[in-house]
Each structure stands twice: as structure tokens, then as C-alpha cells.
Amino acid sequence: MEAKKARMDSKGKVTVIGSGLIGRCWSVMFAKAGYSVCMYDVHEHQLSGAMEATAKTLVQFEEQGLLSDCHIHDATSASKMITTSSNMQEAMEGAIYLQECAPENLDLKKNIFTELDKYATDYIVLASSTSCIGPSKFTLDLVHKAQCIVSHPVNPPYHLKLVEVIPSPETRADVAERTVAIMKDIGQSPVLVRKEVNGFALNRLQYAVLMEAWRLVEDGVLTPEDIDTVFKDGLAPRWSLIGPFETIHLNAPKGVNDYCERYGANIENVCQEQCNVRTFGGATGDAIHQAICATVPVDQLPARCVWRDEQLGALSAHRREQATKEEVKKDGA
Amino acid sequence: MEAKKARMDSKGKVTVIGSGLIGRCWSVMFAKAGYSVCMYDVHEHQLSGAMEATAKTLVQFEEQGLLSDCHIHDATSASKMITTSSNMQEAMEGAIYLQECAPENLDLKKNIFTELDKYATDYIVLASSTSCIGPSKFTLDLVHKAQCIVSHPVNPPYHLKLVEVIPSPETRADVAERTVAIMKDIGQSPVLVRKEVNGFALNRLQYAVLMEAWRLVEDGVLTPEDIDTVFKDGLAPRWSLIGPFETIHLNAPKGVNDYCERYGANIENVCQEQCNVRTFGGATGDAIHQAICATVPVDQLPARCVWRDEQLGALSAHRREQATKEEVKKDGA
């Protein structure tokens, strides 16, 4: 009776394929936003553990006040939105959206999407969480290829809202639009990656940074610790508020065009110097590894990840508070 | 009598050359940290305005609680640490450190440093605030070349603590050490840039990002607004806490070395694709300019800078609070 009531209040059914870490995250995010979730796993015995874990996360969120601005405000009701199945056809029945969360392996993705294709309606969106495999690599042979897309979250997705949405050249426009709309509805921050490029957008930008950081260390300009300081106390707080384009817009009296006129030629010179790709590994890799291990040894990585997520949660709460203050100011003006 | 008392309590005298925006910032930072400051300007009439501005900033800081963890806790006492002079010899007399804040023009820097050289003792540190001119370009002909260095702050320096310290090949090691020590003492976060490279460290990293962001827009992959979203809701909050190297350390079970083994080859592939430098300007520049102007028109840039600084101040306060909580936790453990 309770379960039936939950389904009746649902905004729609979402299938989550895979009950590992990412599958659990997505299940929690869909459930608290008011979607009924069926979490599927080929390993039936993992599903009860996954149910316990999602319920526990939702209780923590309620205690931390993180459910207050969600569609469902209490952990018990949100948990009731989640069911499980080890039968794929059953898991997909009546679903409007599917989020695949299997390990990052091309053959595995191909096999899973071939199976999903069998049970897919003409309406369901088939989204993969992959961070690195372009959708055209595992969807173009399918009957429902036009309904396939990538929705790549950032870790941890509760506190880092970005989702990269990447259609293949065969994805229907309305499928991309519906994916973006659902991501917004569950409180995430989607960007549409309009062409399928290696690394998508986030990793391409991250890799550009890592490569230049690597060069600076390899060439003896900065220590690895100092690289992180340049971001923590310099570049990143500003970018977390306004991004790199608005940053340069505010750094010249007449905006972006003015900035390019003043500094463009030298930026191009520096970027020419950056056209040399270093090998990720070897002595420089060891030096960076050892330097970071001095403060975070490998055996303390899990604890440090918990700390990072707590800090990101606190930062996220701070950002919400500031946004609310802004709203109040606007309403008062 | 009051002025004499202030000087007696001083940690040492600092000369600030130039009473524009950056000179005023530095004067405030040195004064609240307990240094007596003599602000010099060739334009004597600008100095009274600069004194009013620094006094006003200090009052604002006191009201916002930003002086509470400084060496001097009240605005009135801090303001008394600042004097002015339009006589360079007088301004430099007895100073342990000098911070030059003239406009970014190589000939101007050369002229100023030639003059500073005349009045320099064998002890004073002669630091330039330049963001883009390497110290060897304007100091190598001087008698006191071994005492010359660059200390490049980030805007706004009150809330973004990073200072890049760049010695020339002729700078004495103890001069670099004393510069780093003074920057730490005034509450900033210095990194030593061990080789004089074009763009120093912060801008080299910023330019690598801008160039890839530019390519993604030019190639129709992302809109300019979406680029900023990737940073605001994805990359930057994480980097503001742990930097890019610790980020990858936490993103593989066994740390940096493990990350490089898993992802290094693909990172190198993506970075090969990034070895093409685009022109900063033209149609792409206009498109980015127009896109950012849709939310921040050029005539609203000054107001948006005020907003940015307020938000950075709030973020900085949040970070201090979190750091204090961490300290309390540690002490309790």
C-alpha cells in the first residue's frame, strides 16, 4: 500500500542500471527529486546492500538539512521511491529515463546497450554515465540509437552539480532536450556537449591544466604543492564564482574584447610554448606522487575523500546561502 | 606623538611605490599586519586621496570583522601605520622592503628601478608587483640587482591570498626567502616561481584553460556560458579545496601514480589535439564577448566587480570558518 502510494506520487519511473557507487548516487538524486527509481543489478545479492546504502545516505541528507529544498523532504518517503530488480525487462517497464552505471569498459557497455535495446520503448531515454567513452562507440548499431546519450556526472554529484550531456550524431534533438530537462529537474547543472570529442568538455579542460602543471613541475619552475596552492588560493575561488570567461570579462575595462586586444598576443605566445606533450609517469610522476603523499599518504585516501566530500558539502551549503541572500536582495530592490 | 608610537610598534618600514589601486591594496595589507608603510607617488596630489581610500578600506574591514585575526585589530591604529611622501629618498629611508606598483610598462619599470637603485641600502628588498614582466628585463643593470624580485598579487589580494614570488637569475637566495617570509607574515600565500618563465605560473595555467575553452567554443562544442558552468559547478569548487594534483590523487585508488597508469595515455592523446593555438579575437572573440555581455553588459562591469569582491570575501570568511572547525577537531582528537 505504501509502495503503491509512492509510485502514484512519482514524476515518472527511472531505471538505474548498476548498483555500485555511481548507481547509488543517481538513485538517491532521482528519488529525492520525486522520481520512482528501479535499481537493476545482474548481481541480485548486491541489491539489498545498495538499498541499505541509499536509505542511509538519504537519512544523512535529512539530518544535514539537504532535503529541505528537494521535492521530497523526508528520508523515509524518498527511500520508498526506490525499488530493485535483477530482471532487466521488469526494471525498464514503463520507465521514461534510464541511467546506465556499469564499469568503464567498452565491450561491457556494448553488451549492456544491446540488451537495453531489446526492452526499450520508443519513448525511453537511454543514458550512460560514462566519463570517457563517446556514445557513438556503443550505440550506433542499435534499433533505439536515436534515444541513446551520455549523462556524465562529477564526483561527488550531490555537491558538484555539473552533468555533461553528450549526444551522438544519431541522437534525436528531443532526447537531448529531455535529458537536459530531467537533469535540471533533479537539481543538477547540465551542459550540452554539442560534438562528441575525446574527453568531453570537463576532462579536456582538466587535462589542459594537468599538462601545464606537469610541465611546470618537470621543468623545475614550481613544486607540486605550489601548483595546488596556485589553484586553492588564486585561480579556483574566482572560477568557482564566475568561470574563466567572466573572469577575463571583469579583468579589462571594456570586457572580453578589450582583454583579447591587450593580452591576446602574449597568451598566444605562451600557448605556443605549451605545444609540447609530456609523458604522464616516470620520474616527474613519482615526484608528484611522493609530494602529495607527504600530506595525504595512500592509506589515508579513503578518509581524505570523506573529508573532501564534507568540505564540498559545506561549500555547497555556503553557495546556496549566498544565492538565497542575493534573491532576497533582488526581491527587496 | 601618536605617529611616533605607531612607528615604534612597527615590525619594520615598507615603502610602497605608486598610490593607485594596487599600491593602496598593498599599503592596507602591510599596515594591518603591523608594518609601517610609506606610500610614495610622484603625483603628490594623489596621495591625500590614497590616504582617504586606505583609511576607508580599513574601516570597512573592521566592520566586516576582517581585522580580528590581524596583527592590528582596529582601523584607526592600522591607518596610523600609513604615511605618504613624494620624495623617493625619504620614502625609502630605513625601509626593509619595497613594493613597486607602477603601471605595466617596461620603460617605466626600468626608469623607476634605476631611481630606486640610487637610494637602496644593501639590505632592502626591491619587489615589483608586475604580472607579466620578468624581473631580469628591468633589474640586471642595477647595482642592487641581487636584491630585486617580483611579488605578483592576485586581484583582489585581500580575498585571494596567492602571491607569486619570482627571482631573476641574479636575485640572492636570502632575498627570495625574506620576500616569502614577509608575504606569509602579512597573511598571504606565497609560491616561489623558481625560473623566470613567460606568464609566471598563474597566468600560464590560466592561459592553458583559456585556450582550450576558446577551442571548444570556436569548434561549436560548448557555448561560452556553458564553459563558465563547467568551472562553477564542476572543476573549480573541487580545485578551491584540493588543487588539481590532489584531485587526481583522490581519483584513483592508489593515488597519482595509479591515476597516471590508468588515464595517462588518453590524457596525452587529448593534449596532442590541444597543440594548436587559436587567435584570441575575431568572430569567436565577439561571440564570447556578446554571450558574457548578455548577463554582464560592459556598463555594469564595475558593479559586477564589487559583487565579485563581496562574494570572494564571503567565500574567504567561509574558508576561515571551516579551517577553524578543523583546528578545533584536531585539538579535540
Structural features, described:
2 copies of one chain form a homodimer. An 8-stranded mixed β-sheet of chain A has the order 3-2-1-4-5-6-7-8. The N and C termini of chain A lie far apart (49 Å). In chain A, strand 6 and strand 7 (162-167) form a beta hairpin. In chain A, helix 2 packs across helix 3 (44-63) and helix 10 runs antiparallel to helix 11. Chain A has helices at residues 2-9, 21-32, 44-63, 75-80, 88-92, 106-119, 136-139, 173-185, 202-218, 224-249, 256-273, 282-295, 301-332; strands at 13-17, 36-40, 82-85, 95-100, 125-128, 148-153, 162-167, 189-192. Chain A is an alpha/beta fold and 333 residues long. The longest helix of chain A is centred in the last third of the chain and has 32 residues, at 301-332. In chain A, 57% of the residues lie in helices and 12% in strands. The first copy, chain A, is built from 13 helices and 8 strands. Chain A folds into 2 domains: 2-192, 3-Layer(aba) Sandwich (Rossmann fold), CATH 3.40.50; 202-295, N-(1-d-carboxylethyl)-l-norvaline Dehydrogenase, domain 2 (Orthogonal Bundle), CATH 1.10.1040.10. Chain A is globular and about 60 Å long. At the A-B interface, strand 8, helix 9, helix 10, helix 11 and helix 12 of A face strand 8, helix 9, helix 10, helix 11 and helix 12 of B.
